[in-house]
Amino acid sequence: MIRKLCAEGLGSAMLLIAVIGSGIMGESLAQGNAAVTLLANAIATGCMLFVIITVLGPISGAHFNPAVSLAFLLRGQITRPACAGYVAVQITGAFLGVWAAHAMFDLPILQLSETLHRTGPAQWLSEILATLGLMFVIFGGLRSRPDAVPVLVALYITGAYWFTSSTSFANPAVTLARGVSDTFAGIYPGHIVMFVVMQILAVFIAHATLRPLLDE
Questions:
Q1: Any residues with CB less than 8 A from the CB of 208 and at least 6 apart, and which?
Q2: What domains can be seen in the chain, in order of their start residue?
Q3: Burial track 163-185 (b if 16+ CB lie within 10 A, e otherwise)
């Protein structure tokens, strides 16, 4: 279990380094072109997801996401103590990843995001659909092509950055951690709660709708 928790914490930290770091670099190089910044952000995140799922998946299952851990708990595939431990290290790792990215780009370590546009019914619906899509990709991939899950998740998230209005957070740990980064990838702390509520709601919707479709 210690190895699994270390893998989940490390993977979550590396994911946030990619999310925040690519946002900072993209914004710096794009000189105000938000589309270019978002493209850099999406590609870097997708690449990192492929790497950490491939490398750490055999150790912990490569959740890196409290919503994913909750989904496995609902399916009876992990225990409650294991789920609680996963969630704790995922959140801790995510915050450490944000702070590491800030340090790497010589920014103040401790920040609060002032990005104000991530709220409202359209954004909340976007997070439900983004998280539902992630559940579909993960559990559909595990049923049909387990070896392809790393690339499936990486491709899905890279695409979902572009076809969702919220840019597909789909991860409570990522959402919480992005609240402490006043950079391109940040989210205003006051808007975090509804994002997380929608993500968790999507897990229960997925549990009710995808199991009859995907399970034998």
A1: none
A2: 2-214 (1.20.1080.10)
A3: ebbbbbbbbbbbbbbbbbbbbbb
Please say whether the dihedral angle defined by the alpha carbons of residues 167, 172, 176 and 181, taken in this order, is positive or negative: negative
Express each pLDDT in 99-134 by its tens digit: 999 999 999 999 999 988 899 999 999 999 999 999
Q: Please tell me the total number of residues recorded for the chain in this structure.
A: 216
pLDDT tens digits, residue range 166-188? Answer: 999 999 999 999 999 999 999 99
Burial class (CB in 10 A: 0-12, 13-18, 19+), 193: exposed
pTM of the predicted model, to two decimals? 0.95
